[in-house]
Amino acid sequence: MFKKAVEAKALQRLSGADKKKLRRNVKDKFRLASDADIDSLLPPKAEISVAKFPNRILVYGVEGGFPVFFDTDGRGSEIYPTVYALWSAPDLLPAFTLKGGEVSRFVINGADLMFPGISIPPDGLPSFSAGEPWAVKVPGNPAPIAVGATTMSSSEALKAGLRGKALRITHYYHDSLWESVEGRFVPNAGFFEDVVMADPSLLDSLVSQSGETGASNHQTSDNEGEVEPATSSDHGPTSAVNLDDKSDVVEQAATELDGLRITENTSSNESRVEEPQSMSIEDVDVLLDSCLLQALHTTVKDKDLPMPGSTLWSNHVLPCRPSGVTLDIKRSSFKKLSKWLQSKASVGLISVKEDKHKKEVVLFSVNRTHIDYTSFKPDKSQPAKIEQSNDQTAGESSSQKALEIEEIYKPNTHVISIFAAVGADTGGYFSAIEANNVVCAYVEKENLVKPNDKAKVILDATLCDALFKGAIKKGSSYPTEIHKKDLGPTFISRMQAHHMVTRGGDSVIRKGAVRSIQIMTERRQGNKKMTKLSGFETFLLDADSLASELQKKFACSTSVAELPGKKGHEVLVQGGVIDHLAKHLIDQYGVPKRYIEVLDKTRK
To answer: How many Cβ atoms sit within 10 Å of the Cβ of residue 358?
Structure first.
């Protein structure tokens, strides 16, 4: 739902009556929430704003804070808390626990939660009904990583053998809603760029508890010396069992942590990097500057500029923080990402500019001769890890460019009886080959092949109605047989045509045939050329991202406008780049040439 960044079309404050209504809806929706939880998320005297998005989603948040709730249908019936709200009130929703931290890679990449990835408690699957909001947690970490709605009830899940989709994820850590917050943060050191593991602080407490228990048992055994087996059974075995249980928990949590070793030496725990909560404002400022310089030396390349500030923060600065450290811009003296970047620009290290369209600061260039840059010595142990994540990101971005277009068909009232007769799904989508197999299965089942001419099929009442009812002129007689080569095309023509567009992990099914992209060049005032691009939404291309890329590609100004009198947007590119633009869509995004229409009004 928040896989792609979408700009809000309106932002307004809630009135007093609307705030009370929102609080009532939240209290009715989340029965586990206490009054204190609701007051902390929606303070009675605070100003609450709502952001309205083009897809009818409403996002509620306290002004100057973080988004706390979002409404997927805009009517108040499908309200979910954000991960920021769940980090503040973890008991707001019941939660499924994953089988391991590695499973979180799929969830925070936008995949729905499947039953095989859920850890079932010893007392069995908890009771729930379809459509309930649930959170997702990682073992050993109390902070939820995602929220969604159940796809079936617990009884239906048990009947299905705990297979299939358990939770339709609506929002997750690292999606566009989380990244849209300026000064975003993570709740603990278990949250990494591409995976969420157990919280090391909880792991430390488990280790210390198990160490104390072992020491007490050792002391008891020294004091007692040799004892009779019957006497030692009163205390020894019980203590041993408890210690083993805790050791198992510690060992399981240790396997969840990537690259983190557990030792019994308490001095190693004390020498770890302090959490941001205990760091002073000056220490956070120094850490910010260090991470920025590390990123400028290792991952930020001049060819990638200009770069949005949010991308610089999430993809470059945050990965450069020390392992186990939470970096929060709000704990610095700058409080906001834009102010911090502007302060670096004021000393000449970088140059930035505010993008009024996207309302964020954009990094334009890096002064690699600046004294701060030249005097900084980057950490040699970090680039390998960062470059690996960059390679993974590049692989993901290249996979998103893979475009697949498939023509599919859905049964309608004409042919639904044929699908029902052979036991096929009457509400599903079928390719042309699959639809042809359905009608052939019906012919074989009813034995309709003409005995003395195997190339023809006899039409019974059901098949005749499916193929010709409503298509024969009044007064004309219905055919009694059809050639096999005409059976499939005639049957498919009676179905409802659709098309499915897939790009990377996103798929969209729409009615009708595929609509082409229109590229048109015309003259404006002063005999200047302007190229218009529209219809790209069909191929899952975002208007703002496309405009930003074309601006860098053709070194010209671009803008996004709504299509007059139609749904959708158009990208306006300065200059006559009609041929280059069509080639770019084919090479870069894989749009087939047959789906691109070109019109040059400047040629006479």
So the answer is: 15
